[in-house]
Amino acid sequence: MAEDSSYESILCVKPEVHVYRIPPRASNRGYRAADWKLDEPAWSGRMKITAKGKMAFIKLEDKNTGELFAQAPVDQYPGVAVEAVTDSSRYFVVRIDDGNGERKHGYSRQRL
């Protein structure tokens, strides 16, 4: 049976995540969550991880309307789209796309 690559499945939904603006990496050692303004998220909403074919997508959506804020296509982990931070297992770096092809770095964490 052939795989239907047009079918999108939902792998995970986190109802509350935060995106932060952070300074550029100071060294090649990696990003550190302690360097971010964790009390000042730039955006808060819902995260949905979906899969379509062999690609996964991290989607950041408004938790009330479902409007897409940004997304990150993920073809492998670890990779360019998602990086772990060096000082926490709760935070990670996501290279996000605003939906118009413009890339920016976003940083999100689930509230536990």
From TrEMBL:
Residues 7-103 form the NECAP PHear domain. Gene3D superfamilies: Pleckstrin-homology domain (PH domain)/Phosphotyrosine-binding domain (PTB). It comes from the Eukaryota. GO terms for cellular component: clathrin vesicle coat. Involved in endocytosis. It is found in: Cytoplasmic vesicle, Clathrin-coated vesicle membrane. This is NECAP PHear domain-containing protein. One of its GO terms (biological process) is endocytosis. It holds the Pfam family DUF1681. Belongs to the NECAP family.
